[in-house]
Every structure is written in structure tokens, then in C-alpha cells.
Amino acid sequence: MKLIQHGAIKAAALSILAAATTMAEETIKVGVLHSLSGTMAISETSLKNTALMAIEEINAAGGVLGKKLEPVVVDPASNWPLFAEKARQLITQDKVAVTFGCWTSVSRKSVLPVYEELDALLFYPVQYEGEELSQNVFYTGAAPNQQAIPAVEYLMSKAGGGAKRWVLLGTDYVYPRTTNKILRAFLHSKGVADADILEEYTPFGHSDYQTIVANVKKFAQGGKTAVVSTINGDSNIPFYKELGNQGIKATQIPVVAFSVGEEELRGVDTKPLVGHLAAWNYFQSVKNPVNAAFIKKYKEWAVANKIPNAATVVTNDPMEATYVGINMWAKAVAKAGTTEVGAVRKAMSGMTFKAPSGFTLTMDATNHHLHKPVMIAEVRADGQFNVVWKTPAPIRAQPWSPYIEGNKGKKD
């Protein structure tokens, strides 16, 4: 009798195990690799939320290849070496088909060797410094010619105030330093001397901007000055507060930010910042039906999922880039009929998606970057933005900047 009972229990256990294995095979695991704690959580948490929303939406429409997507969320906690460890875990242990993640270039540089070694796919949703091209990464944020260069050209123009002197202010890591290397070379090409460029960096999490902002005011006494900010993470809050404290108005010294959008301004009194600028490829304030639906979906998702301060959630550029990337990947898998990396990579070539920006975005056939519109907008008193300049159509990314020596002839 005991033998029969034991056999029945064993059979039932095997049956449960087989069912669990079958269930696992019926889902496609998707990695979400974003800092949910530490200095970058202010920016990255909303990208995790967007990824989960997009996955829910795809699943509600039937999933991919008849299977539901199963998100695997990890928190590298703004710790750059931990990004590589978590990426390896997602690929080798969790067996994800793709990863959506990273914000800072130092986190992307940390995980890149892992994705290349294991021939896995990463979708990177944030503007960056370029000077990189990997078969294992799809870059859905902007290259410098889709953000940084047009922003500086705008500030040089009559409409942008005709700046003659430049403050390049950033967080001390690869993205701000490389972007500013490109911008310095670009400014030189326009006849700007080094004496008219002030370049300064602060560590991640820096909070005392009193001296730096005072130095900017002093530097601006030498002529019409603009500030280009590549400050990242929660340091933006004390920086913008100090601009307000010292009475720096956009009409006097305009600041254009490349890493500040609607999400970062949620924690700031934006009334003193009215008229300061941001350069992106999307803003929540853009009016079109696709964007209206995107905003509505996210607000409803935030409430349904009890996101902190759900009543005041906003959308921003890297959220749009995350949303576009996940939907493009899903379309590519459907087209390829498999999640196999080589087949998906091939299917992504020339893939299009009607984005909340109002433009149909195309994944370049060769360089793994999106063709994107460029928008420059002014901060409003309510923390939203008014677009003051934009390209009439999406432009092709140039990963290898022509202003960096040695890039001539590099294929993109």
C-alpha cells in the first residue's frame, strides 16, 4: 500500500513538474535591466514601468508567436559593475530572449561585453554620445547629430539667442565627457575659441551647485553665454534649484539639457526655470492621436498598478524610446517566426513603428539606430515643455561623429 502511495505521489510530482516546464515554455522571458534604487532611480524607474506596460499591452493582444511575454525585472541599483553581473544572470540563468535596459553610458559599456560574448540582444533607450556600434545592441535613443549638435546650432542662431560663449556642464563619466569632446570640436569648427568654453564635471549624486552656478554667472559677463547640461540623475534637482536661487533666467543665460525631461522636473519648482531648454526626440506636450493614446494608457496603467504619485505621472523621451523598442522587437520576432538572435536582428533591419512623437520611426538597415525627429522645447511653469523648434522629418543617426578625429571613413 505504501509503495502504491509513494508511486502515486512521485507520479503526481512528475506531472506537476512537467506542467510547470510546459508553462515555462509557453512564455517568452524578457529582461528589464534598470536602476530602481540609487542616484539613477529618478530617471530609470519610469522606464521599467513603461516596459511592463508595453509587455502587458502586447500580451493582451495575444502575445508573440502565440506565447505571453514574461518580464524578468532586476535592479542593478546604479552600481555599474552590478549591471554586467545582472545582465549575465538574465541571459544565462533566466534565459531571457532580449533585454531592455540601461540609462547611463557607463552602465551600457559595462554590459556590452556580456551581450557580445553571449550573442544576446540589448535594446538601449537613451540618448548617448555615439562612438559605438554593436551587432548586439539596438539604440533607440538619439545619437549626437539627433540631439546635441542641433541644440547647440539652435542656441547659436538668432532664434536661440545667438550665444557666443559656452558652459559645458556634466556628470563625470563617459557620456558627458565624450559628448562635450564632440561639442568642443564642433564649436571650434564654428570659430569659437577655447577661452570662450568653460567645461566642468561633478560626480554622480552631487548636490552643491552654489559655487558652480556662481562661476557660470561670472563667466557670462564676458559675452552672450549658454549652458549645455549633461548632468544625469538626481543631481539635476539641486542644480535647477540653484539656478532658481541665483536668479538665472533663460533670457540671460539659457540652459539646454540633454538628460532632463518631464520626469526629472516633477521634483522641482519649475516657475523660475521657465524658458530654459531641453533637446529630445519626443515631449509629452506633442499633440497627435498616437501620443494622446500613449499618455492615457500610461496614466491608467500607473493608477491600476498603484505607482507612487500615480496621479501626477508623466511621459518622456526615454519612455517613448523604450515603448518603441519593445514593440519593434515584438514585430521583428513575429516577422522572423522565432526569438533566435540572428533572425530577429535581420528582421529588425528597416522595421518601422508609428511612435507617440507623431512620426513613423525606422530602424536603420545597417547601423542599429533609429531615424528620429529632433525637438527643442522650453520649460513651462507646469513642468511640461513647449516645442520651439523641430526637424520636419526623422533624421538618420550618425554614430561616428564627423567632429571626432579619426572617424572619417568609418562606416555606420
Description:
This protein is α/β, with parallel strands linked by helices and 412 residues long. It has 2 domains: 30-140 and 290-303 and 319-372, Response regulator (Rossmann fold, 3-Layer(aba) Sandwich); 145-286 and 377-390, Response regulator (Rossmann fold), CATH 3.40.50. It has 11 helices and 15 strands. The strands form 3 sheets. A 7-stranded mixed sheet has the order 7-6-8-9-10-14-15, sandwiched between helices. Strands 2-1-3-4-5 form a 5-stranded parallel sheet, sandwiched between helices. Strands 11-12-13 form a 3-stranded antiparallel sheet, with helices on one face. A hairpin with a 5-residue loop joins strand 11 and strand 12. Helix 2 packs parallel to helix 10 and helix 3 (80-93) runs parallel beside helix 4. The longest helix has 24 residues, at 2-25. 47% of the residues are buried.
